[in-house]
Amino acid sequence: MDSVQVKPETFYDSLSLAHKLDDILDGFKLEELHLFSYFSCILFLYNGNSITDWKYRFIMGENGYPFSDELNFAIKRHIQNGLFDKRGCFYLITSRGTDEFNKFKKLATLSTREDCLNAACTTNILVPYSQTIRALLNDPEIDKNKRIKGERWLNTPDAYQKFHEISKAVGVPSDDLIIPAVTWVNYINENEKLVKSRE
């Protein structure tokens, strides 16, 4: 019997992200849950919260996506317990998974996390999905870690600092997380175009 417990934060975050991505995209890949959780973590910091309150960290995965062991453990449990269902190359959240999400979403202790998770996923509606993914995978901290061999923790506060500077420079209101999320994605994409034009 496995004595390791799923952290409440990873239990909820994975359900919330799956619910949103499935709704927006009609399915999701497991690495997308890690990527949007990482982006949500940056928004969590941007919103004035401590990194320790996020409760789990990320390394650079072999596939070029952020990866969290704790989040992955929760995802595996959701699959085992029938909350996620695999369909071809994608996963769907089941009606049972949606019921669990809706039950926990009402908890006031999770409202700050939900705001961040929602803003991260809403970016997919306001910016084309392929551009959002490309931008998030070219986040300065992720980009730096791709060039370093071996497992290395992603330094979320460094990514947040750049995110905060850009939001402040363009006059983004700090009480709205969707606008800075979209601003960040657009900034990274524009920066990537600029770099390519100079090559």
Briefly characterize the structure.
By secondary structure, this protein is mostly helical. It has helices at 8-25, 30-46, 69-80, 95-105, 111-126, 129-137, 140-146, 156-169, 178-198; strands spanning 59-60, 66-67, 84-87, 90-93. The protein has one domain (8-198).
Describe this structure in words.
This protein has 199 residues and is mainly α. It has one domain (8-198). The chain is 63% helix and 6% strand. It has 9 helices and 4 strands. It has helices spanning 8-25, 30-46, 69-80, 95-105, 111-126, 129-137, 140-146, 156-169, 178-198; strands spanning 59-60, 66-67, 84-87, 90-93. A two-stranded antiparallel sheet has the order 1-2. Strand 3 (84-87) and strand 4 form a beta hairpin. Helix 1 packs parallel to helix 5 and helix 6 crosses helix 9. The chain is globular and about 50 Å long. The model has no long low-confidence stretch (mean pLDDT 88).
Overall radius of gyration: 16 Å
**Average pLDDT for all residues:** 88
For the record, the count of structural domains works out to: 1
Distance between the termini: 55 Å
The share of residues in helices is 55-70%
Order of helices and strands: HHEEHEEHHHHHH
Largest beta sheet, briefly?
2 strands, antiparallel
Beta content comes to: 5-15%
Overall spatial form: globular
Q: Which structural class do you get from the secondary structure elements?
A: mainly alpha
- Give the number of DSSP strands: 4
